[in-house]
Write a structure and sequence with these properties.
Blueprint: H1 3-6, H2 22-33, E1 41-45, H3 52-64, H4 70-77, E2 84-87, H5 96-106, E3 116-120, H6 128-139, E4 145-151, H7 159-162, E5 166-169, H8 175-186, H9 190-199, H10 204-212, H11 214-228, H12 233-269, H13 280-323, H14 336-345, H15 348-366, H16 371-384
Helix pairs in contact: 2-3, 3-4, 5-6, 8-9, 8-10, 9-10, 10-11, 11-12, 11-13, 12-13, 12-16, 13-14, 13-15, 15-16
Length: about 400
């Protein structure tokens, strides 16, 4: 049994939601209790789903609230405390205007708390120009202001940023530990929770979704099985279109309800009754909201395609494992028969060529290549073993 499964749970506010990271919790608890030993800027790194943001807000609560002030701590955890500023982009990148606004707030003195805390959840989504906006605030930190940046790894940030932060690296939990957590939090039966944790590759948020959404599990299974049927260019084009359509539909489902609620809230705030004509003075606000929602939809679509690529990566990772005689530890154990057939039919070099093309597809998408073209190119490699 792994250490995460045997460790004593941390239950006190604000650390109660932090799971499986006892070393990081101990470090940040000590820093929050000793201002002299604490740093003015922190970077929390770890794989997606490891709990970077959860830990960041727990640390923020401990920094802002006086010891034992659970009401203030819960305010921070709810993102409503006046001394907390947070940035979580729902767009492809963090805009430079958002970074400038955050830096301005960093120079305000705390209003009620011990510190003012700035949390940037997606620091890896800052372009170099945007990162340089933060750099000055990190070089000349305001008194009693603490920055907490979150990113998958420190390599995702500029060296000039990395040199000015103290890094906390989170560990990746084991599949069995994630499965137990998901079963506990969602009520899913043990078999579904284990499959979800394995398919999500230990990403806690994705494992929760797979465990509680049968449609999401079915879509994932359909995507992987359809890729295994690709034999030629016609198949590649058809399956690529299906993958992009599934990601598009998923993104719309995730954002449509929220978009409608935001529009209704805005109209209610400015005093426009439901169904009434929108005054010209309000239209600019609605247009600005629509633009923001479009950017969020683009991010949601990119995230959906990235999840599909992660699933495909796990598929061909399993094929390589089988080609080298490792049948244990398959991520997609339910497809063992189909994967064994591919492993027998292909050479290891062909499988590695597909994995290389997967990595190239990710880079192309980051450069704004059209998703459909990028996926088609990937699946042509799957069909032929050769890069188009």
């Amino acid at each position: 049994m792994s250490s995460a499964a045997t460790e004593s749970p941390v239950l006190e506010v604000p650390w109660g939601e932090v799971w499986g990271q006892p070393e990081a919790v101990r470090m940040l608890q000590a820093a929050a209790s000793d201002d002299a030993a604490s740093s003015h800027a922190w970077l929390i790194t770890g794989p997606p789903g490891s709990g970077r943001s959860t830990l960041a807000y727990a640390f923020a609560a401990a920094l802002i609230a006086e010891p034992g002030d659970e009401a203030a701590m819960r305010q921070v955890l709810a993102h409503t405390h006046p001394d907390l500023s947070a940035l979580r982009t729902e767009q492809v990148v963090i805009r430079i205007e958002e970074a400038r606004q955050l830096v301005e707030r960093a120079y305000y003195a705390p209003s009620t708390g011990r510190h003012r805390v700035i949390v940037v959840e997606d620091a890896d989504r800052m372009a170099e120009r945007t990162s340089n906006v933060l750099l000055k605030a990190l070089e000349e930190p305001p008194e009693r202001t603490v920055w907490i940046l979150c990113a998958p790894s420190d390599a995702d940030l500029l060296p000039t940023i990395r040199s000015r932060v103290r890094t906390v690296r989170l560990r990746e939990p084991e599949v069995d530990d994630v499965a137990r957590l998901i079963a506990l939090r969602t009520g899913a039966d043990a078999e579904v929770a284990e499959q979800a944790a394995r398919h999500a590759q230990r990403h806690i948020g994705m494992a929760r979704r797979l465990a509680t959404d049968a449609d999401a599990r079915a879509r994932r299974d359909e995507t992987l099985r359809s890729v295994l049927t690709v034999r030629g260019i016609g198949d590649a084009v058809e399956v690529a279109a299906r993958i992009v359509q599934v990601a598009t539909d998923d993104a719309k489902a995730l954002t449509a309800e929220r978009d409608a609620a935001e529009r209704a809230d805005l109209l209610r705030t400015v005093g426009v009754a439901e169904g009434a004509a929108v005054p010209p003075a309000v239209r600019s606000q609605l247009n600005a909201l629509a633009d923001e929602q479009k950017r969020r939809a683009t991010r949601s679509l990119r995230d959906g395609i990235d999840r599909a690529l992660t699933d495909l990566q796990s598929l061909f990772r399993d094929v390589v494992m089988l080609q080298y005689g490792r049948a244990d530890g398959l991520i997609n154990a339910e497809l063992a028969g189909e994967l064994s057939a591919v492993a027998d039919r292909w050479s290891p070099q062909r499988t590695i060529a597909v994995l290389d093309q997967l990595a190239l597809t990710r880079r192309n998408l980051e450069r704004n290549v059209a998703p459909l073209l990028a996926i088609e190119s990937l699946l042509i490699t799957v069909a032929s073993g050769r890069t188009p």
